[in-house]
Amino acid sequence: MKINKFKNKTWIIFLLLCFSVGFSVFAGPGEEYRRKLEEKKIAEEDNKKPSYEAIEFDDKLPESQSDEKEERIGKALFASRVGQRESQVILVLDHQLSLWNKGEDRYFKLKEWKNGYGRKGMKKAEERKEGDETSPIGAFPISFAFGFKEKENTLLPYRQIKKNSVWSGEKSTYNQWVEKEVPVAGEQLWNYKICYEKALAIGFNQDPVVYGRGSAIFLHIKAPGTWESAGCITIEKSSMEELFPLLKEKLSILILQNEEEIKNY
Length: 265
Hints:
Elements: H1 2-22, H2 31-37, H3 42-46, H4 63-79, H5 81-85, E1 88-93, E2 96-102, E3 107-114, E4 122-124, E5 135-147, E6 158-160, E7 165-168, E8 177-179, E9 186-188, E10 198-202, E11 218-221, E12 233-235, H6 237-243, E13 252-256
Parallel strand pairs: 1-13, 4-5, 5-6, 11-12
Antiparallel strand pairs: 1-2, 2-3, 5-10, 5-13, 7-8, 7-9, 10-11
């Protein structure tokens, strides 16, 4: 009897460990950053140099060159497939995120911010796999905005995070927002009070959904102490607060390494 009890306890511990590991492989900010948020010295951690500090963000070009580059990118967006079907585009070019509105013959840049992305870099969307810590390259619709407040200053469809809100990693509901009373494997949205205070759901791997390709890809506020993520695009809280009210009811995001890739989408 004692041996059987010991075996039963061992199996229970094993199953719990397996279930907890399942929560840690989805994109979002990453499990290690969730633990950072729970530390008592979170404020001190946020003042440390971010890991992207060593990366040189693009300095401002001379005005003439900047205008020339903006016009070139604006025309490229206008000629692209995503630019033709949308009237507003969020453009990620490596570590520069910008918002563009459609004009009569090209797109015009409204504002620009610094951004981070997956700690293992970027990868073509069709080559990406769950847990590889890369951000998907491509054009994706912005599905909706979400956060912890009941309402937000945005024209986008908005969802409020509840205690049982999960971005599912289970096969039957893979890569979907679900709300259940029983445990569900996936991204436990309630655990990320800083990163998901304001966020955008990126429509990666949605049409069709391919199980194992990746889930929970968002544009969210960067985690304390780092610009990196497990696959999401990250920006500073002040940048997100500027971005939210500028967004139209429908738009897409282009995640690219350089402007030459715009023509592919």
